[in-house]
Amino acid sequence: MKRLTTVALCLLAAISTTAQTENPRGIYKMMTLTGKQGEIRAPFDQYKICTDSVTLMMNVYSDNFGIQKTDKTILNYTGALPKDENDKSTRVYDSNAERFTMAWWSRDRGHLYFPENGWCIEKYEANMYSKVGRLAVEALTKVPAVDKKNPLLGTWHVLGWMDELKGVKKQLKALREKAQKQASVRGNRDFFIFMPQSVLPVYLQSVQCGGAAQTCEYPDKNTIHLGNDTDWHIKWLSKDVIAIERQKDSGIDWQICERVTDSVPMLNHIAAKLK
User: Fold this and answer.
1) Which helix (H) or strand (E) holds 2?
2) CA separation (Å) from 157 to 24, 94, 126, 235, 255?
3) What is the rounded radius of gyration, in angstroms, for the C-alpha atoms of the chain?
4) Largest CA distance in the chain
5) Average pLDDT of the segment spanning 42-48
6) Helices and strands, number each (H, E), in the chain
7) How far is residue 39's CA from residue 41's CA, in Å, rounded to a whole number?
8) Calpha distance 173→182 (Å, rounded)
9) Which of 30, 12, 45 is nearest to 100 (CA)?
């Protein structure tokens, strides 16, 4: 372990002489990891979302993604070398808008990739995504807007469920109030982001955000045809409120959704929530 720590520090020293010194800002994908097994291709589909106010980590698992705040500090340039041999603070270096390298001290015991009491070095690059990672990022960073050709496109807030639509318009106020109360008490909010070729359900909670990307088509404004050969039928209650017919174990229910019109990308809401 001492040898691995020494090697890692030597690598840091070698890189520090030619490093870029900007703060990393943007969305970066982990490309390589140096740890127990030396430098290897990133074993995780992992991203760092770096802003001036918060650093978030997004992980993609198959069709699912999750976003959490795992970094306690903003990732700003620090330089490669620790202050001394006792300095185990996270290092950020060789950093600009295109890439950055992060070294962090691992205390994990028995981990496949992370050493116990040793440095891990992660290299990140911008504009690199897996298929699901790209779908998620495109949806989360898009500004909600009404598309005249396909009015379903955009971000929709889930207000709640109803087992039938009779009298639903009179109950919209109560549904909104219930959704707002749930958001203030539990911190939970659910959304759909409909993109031209995909739909992204987003579950925003107080400590994390998640969802699952699905490919889809729009045969007409009343139908969403999912990649798993399932159809969601849409009932328009107004130009900004829809009911989605959903098959559940108990039968057919309706998911009531209201268009988000604040012109703020979903990622901004996530960053504010997890900050």
Assistant:
1) helix 2-16
2) 32, 40, 30, 16, 10
3) 22
4) 71
5) 98
6) 4, 17
7) 7
8) 14
9) 30
